Amino acid sequence: MSRARIFGRATALAFAFSATVMPASAWEPTGDVEILVTVGPGTSPDQLARQFQSIWRKQGTVKNNVIVTNKPGGGGAVGLGYLNNSHAGSGENLAIAGASMVSNKLAGRSPIGCDEVTPIGHVFAEYIGVAVHPDSPIKDANDLLARLKADPQSLSIGIATSRGNSNHQAIALPAKLAGVDVSKLKTVVFQAGSEARTAVMGKHVDVVPASVGSLAKQVEAGQLRLLAISAPERMTGSVADVPTWKELGFDAVVSNWRGLIGPKDMPPEAVTYWEGVVEATMQDPDFKKSADAAFQTAKLMKHDEFAAYCKEEEKSLDLILGDMGIGTN
């Protein structure tokens, strides 16, 4: 065999081998990346979006320009409608999602829930504390439930920012398990968490359920007293002495979770890319420090697990919202 034929055959074999074993180029964004926030600037979801933006820039994880866009309104319907109607199938358009996406769909405020988006990564769980004024006659969590069972209208409950959300669920679920008619609970809705906290500190409402992180400073300053927390196990730090509903005998774990989603029909290769980005983000020291300071429990769930979790949340919330007298789909 001539040297030319040997060389030619060797070259062909080498090319065939390299084409088989060399992986295809990984998917990456080709233009600006947008993180949509369905509520206003300064809110917890907005802070998370801007933290992602900052960490991605610092890490160099995402080399493209990252833009944060706020589109509040309609219980998330405005922003999520924009995501799906304008960017279905896009790999560059993302959104911060939370438990409110599920409850708002079930309550009829938004047509978009788990099935209408592409879950990418669950980031953290934010558990809810139930707080009262330090001078409140309500002695503890069991006393709270006893009063509500005797008369569901006897106590006013400050809810931010809508009935049926995680804050509302975190008091309704243990109350239901204690035999309270939760459809009769006396709720006062506030437009911001700060307003609800101020109301209970001023004794304008009797009880406020809110994220532990948002209550911690007032609890530490002696301005509020925590009765129970909706976590699966006791939390640490300044709230370590506060019991969970679960240890009090009520299986009432409620999480105002946060995660990253994409529009419907996001390409699978884009989902894989963003899964990796979320995982790298959660390993960043600044992310961990921020989560700890805010009493957020970091927990990574990638696409498949996150999608299944979202659907389970939908099933369980459908039941409690119905008991609360809030229309479900």
From TrEMBL:
It comes from the Bacteria. CDD domains: PBP2_Bug_TTT. SUPFAM superfamilies: Periplasmic binding protein-like II (SSF53850). The keyword Plastid does not apply. InterPro entries: BUG, Bug_dom1. Keywords: Signal. Residues 1-26 form the signal peptide. The keyword Hydrolase does not apply. Pfam families: TctC. Belongs to the UPF0065 (bug) family. This is Putative tricarboxylic transport membrane protein.
